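Lab notebook, bench 4. Continuing the backlog of folding jobs that were queued last week. Each job is logged with the same field layout so the records can be merged later without manual cleanup. Today's entry covers O-fucosyltransferase family protein, a 453-residue chain. Filled in by technician R.K.

JOB TYPE: sequence-to-structure
TARGET: O-fucosyltransferase family protein
LENGTH: 453
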Amino acid sequence: MGNRGHTQYRTTRRTSHFSITLYMFLLFVFSMFVFFLYTKDIAEDEEKHVLVSEKKELESEQNEDNSVWEASKSHGLHPCVKPTAKYKAALGWNRYLTVKSNGGLNQMRTGIADMVAVAHVMNATLVIPQLDKRSFWQDSSTFSDIFDENHFIKTLQGDLRIIKELPKEIGSLPRARKHFTSWSGVGYYEEMTQLWKEHQVIHVAKSDSRLANNELPLDIQRLRCRALYNALRFSPPIERLGKKLVEQLRTRAKRYVALHLRYEKDMLSFTGCTYGLSDAEAEELRVMRENTNHWAIKVINSTKQRIGGFCPLTPKEVGLFLQALGYPPSTLIYIAAGEIYGGSAHLSELTSCFPNAVFKEMLATPEDLRGFANHASQNAALDYLISVESDVFIPSHSGNMARAIEGHRRFLGHRKTVTPDRKGLVEIFDKLEAGQLDGQSFSHLVSHLHKNR
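JOB STATUS: finished
OUTPUT FIELD FOLLOWS
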């Protein structure tokens, strides 16, 4: 009896262990089944979510008004840079023109192109221009820091002789220092050739605005174009980094807008534009203007400046303008500018509408930009390159850089540029601010105003 009881107990115990093991196994299998079923549902949901998102994005792109990206009409115009059959290169082997190129990047570029033309008219050898290191920007860059010096010389070798520096035997000779009259025509410079009778070297103290824009002989105009758009290529470091940043922008979006946002402290101070600023900021700009000797205009009525269309658009106004034209909030915007006055406080009025706004500092590494520190003209050259390559270029103010980029984009195939009608916009902005316009009416008025701009 006792043995049978022990045997029964052992059998029952084995059965109990087996049942528990089986139960645990079945529970495990059931749990894994539920887990895989659940994760499958999650994966399917995520896949559906991605497909829906991609579909919405595709629909958004399809519904987007492509007219805001369309290039301008050429109206049959095309670049004309080749010389005519009558054109002859300048010889000028024993006459030398030295130049001090003044102003910011784009003043220097146009001034250098003008001096190429002047040297040709005066039949002189042009010495590579010296750049202004005492301007407002205090930039110590040399010609070769900003431009490809060898390319410049080689590209124009069929037009005139260009050398990097005066020969030693010529450098010690007295020079005729000349401030050529602004906006002078070819006849004026033909008269100036009389200076060669007494001097071998003429030094031009300023390059900006020395040559007339209109009524120049065809071959001289074409020479200026060759100098500007073919010869004045930026230095290899600038070209490399500019190309790299454009490629980064292209990986972020199919298309991008380059916005030349003129809202730096010096710009606002010079123009006397204080709309949208605090009293303290307006006073700071006034003091800066008063303390800058070469800014001739001292007392400026900010309200009259704005009504007359002489003020750059504020970041807020730029955001409203872009929205009214039909650019969606997802638009990638490259901001070509220096330090925005007021920092993020003012910039956020734009980025709240267009969060995909970037500066070069957000695209390049600190190592990339290390060599550009404290060189305003080299930084401006980067902005210039990226703006020229953009799908759309929009300047908030029509300064030298805005006009230079617009011209270059026309030369390269009439790439789309939208120049805001600042005078016309002031009235519309003020009506919107006063609550006299709703969003749809505002957009209609802005679009109509810029239909042919």
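OBSERVATION: Residues 2-63 form the longest helix (62 residues).
SIGNED: R.K.
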